[in-house]
Amino acid sequence: MLRVPGAFFFLALAVLPALGFPKFPAGVFVSDWNKNPGFKARITQNGLDFLRDVGIKMLQKQIQQLTIPDITGKADVGIGDIEYKVSKIRITSFGIPTSSLTPDPSAGGLRLTTSGVSLSVHGDWHYETTGFIHISDSGSFDAKASSITLSLTLRVGVDSTGRPTVSSKSSDCSFHAGGMDVDLHGGASWLYNLFDDQISDAILDSLNGQVCSTIVDAVNTNLEDELKTLTMVAPFLDAAQTDYTLVAQPTFNGSVNTAHKGEVYPLNSKKECPLPVPGVPADSDTSRMVFLWITDYLPNSAGYVLQEVGFLQYNVTQDNIPEAEKNYLNTSYFAYKLAIPQLSKMYPNMAMQINLNSTKAPAVTIKESEISVVLEGDFSPYAVLPNKTLAYLFSLRVAISGKVAVGFKGNNITWSLSSLSADMALIKTAIGNFNTKLLDVAVNSAITLYVLPYLNQMGAEGAALPQLDGFVFSKPVVKQGQNFIKIGTDLIYNGKITK
């Protein structure tokens, strides 16, 4: 049987793991079928053309490694029957000058078509007569196939967990080689030219009869197995996971449009975020290869989870700040003497520890003009006594607001905060009342020195977007809308054309 590697269909399926777009088969439903998606994606025709071109290069490299089984037969050459064998058949060249990969709404998937395909093979031949006169001969041959067409429909589905599937039926594939010119070398030319048509027909029958069955088998086994390894849930900050499973059937109307869960969950849990999911307005933009729409539900669900699991807590001590800043954590620091004179009298020249604890999940709001974030928490200093125990001092309720800038690191979306400002209120004290306004400088310095770098360290790592190995975003552009950001990007393939 002609063996076709799974990469033969990469030109048609490269897009599937990139964004994971399935449709739900009959009888399969998920709990959020009618829920707005937190994440949407689109692969335009430009994107499909790019992925097709990458796949074509893979196909042309791999197809030359295929082999065709030996062929045996009999032929009547006028002086009796001869038995022939064609062996060691290998493909020496394979070209696809014209191809297309387009959405197929009627099939719920993609349609691959090619034309003008060229195929050349080389092999050995041997024959011997079976009549009264025994003649045998052997040599080699070169053959070129002509008028080759190939078309394939790939039906995209999803299993009960929201993971994409792909399948094809025998009726979804059409392969036809219209002619084969054979040039035999060596031996008695007056005789072997009498049966070159039989060799040509045998090779054509082998190609036409086996290619589609092998293609369909490769789609239903190799590619389906690859899709089973596709990660639809990405880790986030070692404390949570981002769910990109599908919540609606994709549409195949000129582009491939998909709707994803787009929610962050705690690790090993499916506890739902109670916040509403905003809608994304209709958008017909096809100017880039890929578009992603991320609603503010996704970062807000992340904030909800991080708050629930206690991730947004941090203790600032003299051991985890630079040497030059250790004086900021001393009860006799001049700013504390001015704002809280009783502090240095009660606990003179002692180290301090500041416990930062969020009291409410961070809230992200996306507007056309800006992305803003609000953080609320407690700011609780302690004096470190000579015996290393902690003496509670006071607690401030602090509301921090800032602006967020979105960027990229590879295929991860990143973010950084700036323009942070804080409003404070004294909620509890063990050292007597004081004027919190005089602490503005100290608290805002603490936010700038500790809180901002800590949050931006998380943002620098970013959150993984669905992706396929070897493909990276090229010159992504971010546009903000009401409650969502829109990312338009082209693609670059930096993988090796080997598999």
List low-confidence stretches: 1-34
Specify the overall morphology: elongated
Give me the secondary-structure category.
Answer: alpha+beta
Mean pLDDT: 81
> Into which percent range does the helicity of residues fall?
10-25%
What percentage of amino acids are in beta strands? 35-45%
What does this structure look like?
Helices cover 22% and strands 43% of the residues. It is an alpha+beta fold and 499 residues long. The strands form four sheets. Strands 2, 3, 4, 5, 6, 7, 8 and 9 form an eight-stranded antiparallel β-sheet that branches. Strands 16, 17, 18, 19, 20, 21 and 22 form a seven-stranded antiparallel β-sheet that branches. Strands 12-13-1-15-24-23 form a six-stranded antiparallel β-sheet. β5 and β6 form a beta hairpin. It is elongated, with a radius of gyration of 34 Å. Mean pLDDT is 81; it is low at 1-34.
